[in-house]
Amino acid sequence: xxxxxxxxxxxxxxxxxxxxxxxxxxxxxxxxxxxxxxxxxxxxxxxxxxxxxxxxxxxxxxxxxxxxxxxxxxxxxxxxxxxxxxxxxxxxxxxxxxxxxxxxxxxxxxxxxxxxxxxxxxxxxxxxxxxxxxxxxxxxxxxxxxxxxxxxxxxxxxxxxxxxxxxxxxxxxxxxxxxxxxxxxxxxxxxxxxxxxxxxxxxxxxxxxxxxxxxxxxxxxxxxxxxxxxxxxxxxxxxxxxxxxxxxxxxxxxxxxxxxxxxxxxxxxxxxxxxxxxxxxxxxxxxxxxxxxxxxxxxxxxxxxxxxxxxxxxxxxxxxxx
Length: 322
Ligand code: NAP
Ligand code: GLV
What we know:
Largest sheet: 7 strands, parallel
CATH superfamily of the largest domain: NAD(P)-binding Rossmann-like Domain
Bound molecules: NADP nicotinamide-adenine-dinucleotide phosphate, glyoxylic acid
CATH topology of the largest domain: Rossmann fold
Number of strands: 12
Number of domains: 2
């Protein structure tokens, strides 16, 4: 009997074929409808391996159902959807997909920053709605990106890739990280700041840290009140890091200048969400790593991690929780 693996969403055909040579593959075949909880709970019972997306909550209940699960291969770098402590207690290896998505996500983060700074979406809507009466001097004026100060919270792989882009725009880069990275400061020409100082000094604040209970609503009312009145907040990390009610208030009251959001506390975000009613918000549906090449690389890495563990080899990118 081949070991069983369960894939929680439609996966590229060639990868499913590769896996099928070694495993009995079961898959939830929908593209945009997540696997129903009851199906996941049923399928996990006799699965040896699970390939899942960030939309699946792999919590104690799911892990409790798993009788012979050896590996959870998450197709994302962030793994806050998985209870890694309980998995570890049960001897289940968790893997993720770091590095292959770093540059693509940094590209999107910078695109969001540029779009919010120069009001690209608002300007495009203005044109399409026929509101472009005449060119005028101060019409749709935004913020300069070149020469501005970028504050990065979370200087990891993507944070660093963001620095390289910012340097191409002659930006002054400051950062806050859980652990100070002195060797990077010289190498990348960046400066460390405590969180409050970074918020006070930045024209753009980019969140690039993983989500955990510890950083829930790290950016709330007080933090937003420290920011410059024209500053722009960019979040491509996880929605839960920002208190969205406080952000709405800060944007509406002009405490800060704008926001670029790729992630939300509840995804998919409702079209009635108050943040979406504000013209100074650029909102995207969690597409940070969404290039064809990168998504294929993520799927392949998830497949290889799974194959390695189930054939008695070391996973390529195991999650080491900290
Ligand atoms: P990474 O290399 O692990 O970097 C994370 C950085 O955040 C590390 O430098 C880490 O510091 C720092 N950090 C952790 N906890 C912190 C805290 N409490 N305060 C300040 N800094 C903290 O991860 P990555 O590959 O750059 O990815 C970062 C996150 O981006 C992912 O976890 C994911 O949530 C998000 N992401 C989103 C998309 C998207 O589609 N929007 C795509 C990819 C990734 P240490 O050095 O102390 O560990
Ligand atoms: C996407 O959000 C990821 O964590 O890879």
